[in-house]
Each structure stands twice: as C-alpha cells, then as structure tokens.
Amino acid sequence: MSKISRFFKGGGSAASKGRGGPSPQEALARLRETEEMLSKKQEFLESRIERELAVARQHGTKNRRAALQALKRKKRYEKQLSQIDGTLSTIEFQREALENSHTNTEVLKNMGYAAQAMKKVHENMDLNKIDDLMQDITEQQDVAQEISDAISNRATFGDEFDEDELMAELEELEQEELNKGMRDVRLPSVPSTSLPSRPGKLPACHFMFLIIKSCLSTRRRAEDEDEMKKLAAWAS
C-alpha cells in the first residue's frame, strides 16, 4: 500500500485514533511525507517523458507506429505530471493553512498563560496603596528639591552693613594716607629771588617741585585704584 493510500485511509498511531483525530504535528508530518512522495513521482514522470520523446525521435519516419506509441505514452505521463502539480499545490496550501492555525493556537495559548500570570501578580496589589506610595514619593522629591535649593543658594553674610558708611570710612582712610605721604616729602625752600619773566628760564629747584608734585599725584591715583580694586573684590 502506498504512502498516499495509507494517509487517506487514516493510517496513524493508536494514540491519534484514541483521541478522535491526529494532532497538528502529526497531520503536518503526513502532509510533508505526501509532498515528498509526489515530488519523487514528478521526477520519475519527467524522466519517462524524456525517454519516450527520445524513442519517438529515434523511430521517426522509419517506424511510425513505434514513434506514435511513444508519443501517446509521453502524453499520458504529461497528464499525470499536470495532475500531480495541481495536487502538490493543494497540499501545500493545506499545509500552510494548518501551520498558521497551529501557530495561532500556540500564540493564543501562550497569551492565556501570560494573562493568568499577570492576574496572579496583580492579586496582591492594592490600587489605593499604590496611590499613597506615589504620593509619598512625590512629597519626598519635593522635600529633596527644597533642600538642594537651600544648599545651593549663596550665603549673604555681611549684607547688613551700610555701603555708604563703608565708602565714607574708606575715603577717610585714603585721606589719612595721603596726608601722611605729604608729610614725609621734604620740599625745597622757595627761592627769595623773583622769578624770571620768561617761563623758559625757571630755576632748577622749581622744576624739581613740579616733578615731585606730579609724582605725588601719580602715586595717589595708583593707591586709589588699588584700594578700589580691593573694595570691589571684598564686596563680591
């Protein structure tokens, strides 16, 4: 008995018969066996067609009767080959449909398992407790943000002093330093003779007085600039 005959006559395992029908895996295995058997049948028919065609060419006009018989056999083989092609297409379609059905069944079964697992996980969860927990987390995050903001703010020590008073005190100190510097400078005595009428012939001592005065002014400006820089650095 051929494989295809056993398949359509219900040849299968005793377990399959006891369950009232084959499992998807068993049915798919049978379909693949049938496809393999029909494929081999195709190869056999194709080789017979080639052989009969060669016989018809060999006899040709020499033995027209033998040539015609070979062509008739070739036609029968071609008809069987066409039928097998159609059968293979039908089996292939059925196998793909069964595979898809089996896949869908497995997917649905696994989804059912996952749903049961999720249900079991959520059994011990209370939505009210979850809301309270999320509220506590939000409050603690707000507290942490406030602490971070308080730490990151710049300290304002010393801002209670009056800036105008400090500037006035600084000017007094600058004036004292200037007066002290003036006392330390020994100026030459003023000549008793009258100054010449032309400015180009001033005495040397007068020129020294002007130079010293210019140096004192430059020194005072430099000290003022240094004191202002120190004050700006201290205020920042």
UniProtKB/TrEMBL annotation:
Pfam families: Snf7 (PF03357). Its main location: cytoplasm. InterPro entries: Snf7_fam (IPR005024). Residues 9-21 have a biased composition (Gly residues). It is found in: Cytoplasm, Cytosol; Late endosome membrane. Keywords: Coiled coil, Cytoplasm, Endosome, Membrane, Protein transport, Transport. The keyword Transport applies. It is a peripheral membrane protein. The keyword Lyase does not apply. GO terms for cellular component: cytoplasmic side of plasma membrane; cytosol; ESCRT III complex; late endosome membrane; multivesicular body. Residues 1-25 are annotated as: Disordered. PANTHER family: CHARGED MULTIVESICULAR BODY PROTEIN (PTHR22761), CHARGED MULTIVESICULAR BODY PROTEIN 4C (PTHR22761:SF77). Belongs to the SNF7 family. This is CHM4C protein.
